[in-house]
Amino acid sequence: MSQVQPGCLWVVATPIGNRDDLSARAVETLRGVAVIAAEDTRHSRPLLLHHNIATPLLALHEHNEREAVDAIVRRLLGGESVALISDAGTPLVSDPGFRLVRAARAAGIRCIPVPGACAAIAALSVAGLPSDRFVFEGFLPPKAAARQARLRELAGEARTLIFYESSHRVAESLADMRDAFGAPREAVLARELTKLFETVLGEPLGELAARVAADPDQQRGECVILVAGRGEEADARLAEGQRVFAILREELPPAKAAKLAAAISGAPRKALYQG
Ligand code: SAM
User: Fold this and answer.
1) End of a domain among 229, 244, 259?
2) Closest residue (by CA) to atom 26 of ligand 1?
3) pLDDT at residue 1 is higher than 50
4) Residues 109, 22: one domain?
5) Coiled-coil ranges per the record (predicted)?
6) Structural domain harbouring 245
7) Is the CB of 199 under 6 A from ligand 1?
8) pLDDT greater than 60 at residue 211
9) How far is the CA of 179 from the centre of ligand 1 (A)?
10) Ligand 1 pocket check for 18: Cβ under 6 Å
């Protein structure tokens, strides 16, 4: 019989595209547990069939998480082993599972990770941006005003930033990032990782935003956006932008002065003037 011990919650990462990115240990665990809690049972069934996993499934998604958690914790306390999976990648990473893991740990149940794919880490591993320190920001707010406010808060962050974004908002978000962080800031768009149309584009934000806006093919599929943290060069650009803005403001309305100062210095316009 497998290594699977009773009464434990196994948190199992599944592929983010390529079905073969399921580890041997994940397969053994998913075959050996009493039940698999899945975000969407219909979505996960083809993957499980592909790997000859016939374990029963139960649904655990954001709409039933509260009730499902109680039932699962009772089963775990009764000695059953349970695996948690999400539609893709690592559960709890912009996916359901937080309440279950928290409740299980509070009940004294052992939670065991079976690590594997995660889109953020896969993207970071090929982006060529500093990877010693990074910040995972998950999804930005969908509404423009809230998204722009969040990005302004992040403009001074020195660590590499990682965002998840849906394909129909990727062009808008890149344009907002260009405005908040400045056109010269280095960025990477990692799309459809491990799938047929995998693409990793690395360019300054100004060029990346323009390229994606002009090419509907770059607005398809699943994507991760990575942005380099603010470096010393950015600090120098901002200082130069502020200097130029102060001069131009003597003669021009502030919005116009900020636009010109941003174009001359490469500093983000919104960091010079909020208007
Ligand atoms: N739990 C998942 C993980 O570990 O990466 C993330 C789930 S979240 C609901 C889905 C988002 O992850 C997508 O909108 C996209 O931003 C990113 N993503 C998932 N699969 C991807 C892929 N193959 N290529 C690029 N991004 C992907």
Assistant:
1) 229
2) 223
3) no
4) yes
5) none
6) 233-274
7) no
8) yes
9) 25
10) no
What tens digit of pLDDT does each residue of 221-239 get? 999 999 999 987 777 888 8
Residue 2: its pLDDT value, please?
Answer: 53
DSSP state for residue 91 in the 8-state scheme: T
Give the integer Cα–Cα distance in Å for 12 and 177. Answer: 33
For residues 160 and 201, membership in a common domain is answered with: yes
Distances (CA, A) of 83 to 52, 97, 182, 232: 16, 11, 44, 46
Q: How many CB atoms lie within 10 A of CB 206?
A: 19
3-class secondary structure, 267: coil
- Which ligand 1 atom lies nearest to the CA of residue 13? 4
**Residue 21 neighbours by CB under 8 Å, 6+ apart:** 15, 116, 117, 194
Report the C-alpha gap between 189 and 57 in whole angstroms: 35
Are residues 144 and 94 both part of a single domain?
Answer: no
154 and 54 in one domain? Answer: no
Give the predicted TM-score (pTM) of the model: 0.88
Number of domains in the chain: 3
Bridge partners of 223? Answer: 165, 191
Ligand 1: distance of its center to the CA of 222 in Å? 6
Do residues 221 and 168 share a domain? yes
The one-letter amino acid at 200: V
CB of 227 within 6 A of ligand 1: the answer is no
13 and 113 part of one domain: yes
* Residues 127 and 108 occupy one common structural domain: no
